[in-house]
Structure formats: C-alpha cells, structure tokens
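user: can you give me the structure for this one chain? tokens are fine.
assistant: on it. calling the predictor now.
[tool input]
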Amino acid sequence: MATQNVGEVVEQLRRSTVLIGTGRGSSGSGVIVNANGTIVTNAHVVRGAHLMVQTWDGRTFQAAFKSSDRSLDLATISISASGLQSAELGNSRRLQVGELVVAVGNPFGFLGAATMGVIHAIGPVRGMGVSEWVQSDLRLAPGNSGGPLANAAGEVVGLNTLIVDLLGVAIPSNIVRRFLKPPESREKLGVAVRSVNLSISGESCFGFLILEIAGGSPAEIASLLPGDILIGTEHGAFHSTEDLYEAIDGEGERTVRLRFLRGNSKQTRLTTALLGVFRNKAA
C-alpha cells in the first residue's frame, strides 16, 4: 500500500464522490463503485422517491434505485453515465488505531468538502449492537453520510454514516464489498443465526446461536444442529457479526474449521464445513 500526497488523495476521492439529493431539501453523499454509474451510499440517504446525483464536475443526473439493506444501512443507485472514476475499496481489517484517514462528502450541500483525522477505534459502538464500525475523530456534518472514508493510499476503507459522541462512525469497507456482491454469488454456510453473549469458564464470550439449518447446506453436511453455538474458527474467536462473514466469505471450493458449543457442555468442538458449493437465502 503506497502512501500518496494528501492533495492527490483528496482529488481522487472528490472525483469518485457524488452529491445525492432527494427532492425533499435533504442531501447526502455517495461513492462511485463502477465506471458505468453504480453508486453505493447509506440506505437512509436515498429514502426519497426522486433522486438526483451531481458529480464532481457539476453534471447532474436522475438516479434509479437499485437495492438496499436497511439492517446494514447500505443502498445502491445508478445513473446513466460512463467513464466515471470509481473508487478502490480497501481492506478495513488492516486498519489500525491512530492511522490517518481522509473523508470527502457534501456537508450542507457544499460539493467535495474534505476533512482529515485519525482512527479512534474499530469495533462495536455502545448501544448499536455487535456490528463493527470504524470510528474516527473526523469533523463530519449532515451531508457527509454515504461518502468515503479513505486511508493514506486513497483506498476507501469505510462509508461515513453518522456521528456518535463527536466521533465519525463509518461502515467498514469489507461489509460494503460483501453487500455489493450479487446475492447469488455470496458464500453461504446455510444457517439462520442470532448473536448471543455467554460465559465459558468464567470468561465472557461472543457467539452465534444456530436457529435453522438449510437442507444440503455446508452446515448440515458438517453435522451442525439447531441449538449449537458458533464461537469461532480454529484460528480464533468471533468478536462481532463481521467475523462470521469474514470466515465464510471467499472464492471457490474451500474448507473452514468452525469451533462450536453443543448442549450444556462447555467443551468446544471443531467441525469442517466445505464452502463454495451452496447457494441459499440463509446466511
């Protein structure tokens, strides 16, 4: 990852950041992820029926809604354009506390405003569940939502979403990347789960209680059962929802060794799941 001049990073981000207007007097930001006009933003930014997009060079387009996931607060829209400069998504797992980051957005409708700061924390935010967030000391304002958070190399490592306790909070780029994958191409374990907190040998632990298992899925073939609790892989424990997605996401046929609890036993077990051969609506 090569570090660029800050001015170059900002200019690059400005060219792949758009202003999104809803026709109701509110506006937000979005990130171009495809040169042919696909834009990712926050779901709460695109609630209006009439969406207009303005690019860095002042061109205005009517946008079409494509998809959304309200639970992730992510959405995609598209405009009829070609040759746009798309952003490069980085690996949010490589972020470190204290790392320099840059945000570009459209606060209060000002096109392409930039701000700099450092990563404050990476992980869950109190009162916002177990999902991971990238928290930074950036000075964000209304209109920054949906805009890029980038590292010193200009890679987008998060999507700015809200402000909590004066800190900017962004959705990690790895979650954005997974959302952008077509549903039929997303890797599946074949389970419906609910996150739980439990205690093992007096130590608090995070896991996923299996509620349902799809027939013929990797989970069924691995002999997992409803009621089992997934607590990690052979390489480490789960600490957030994203850890499970990271464990199963990938390309082609491959195996993952999952650590789990069964019944009242506090003794962990290991099972091997074959991935890359199953597609279903279950997670």
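assistant: here you go. DSSP finds four helices and 18 strands in the chain. Residues 6-15 form the longest helix (10 residues).
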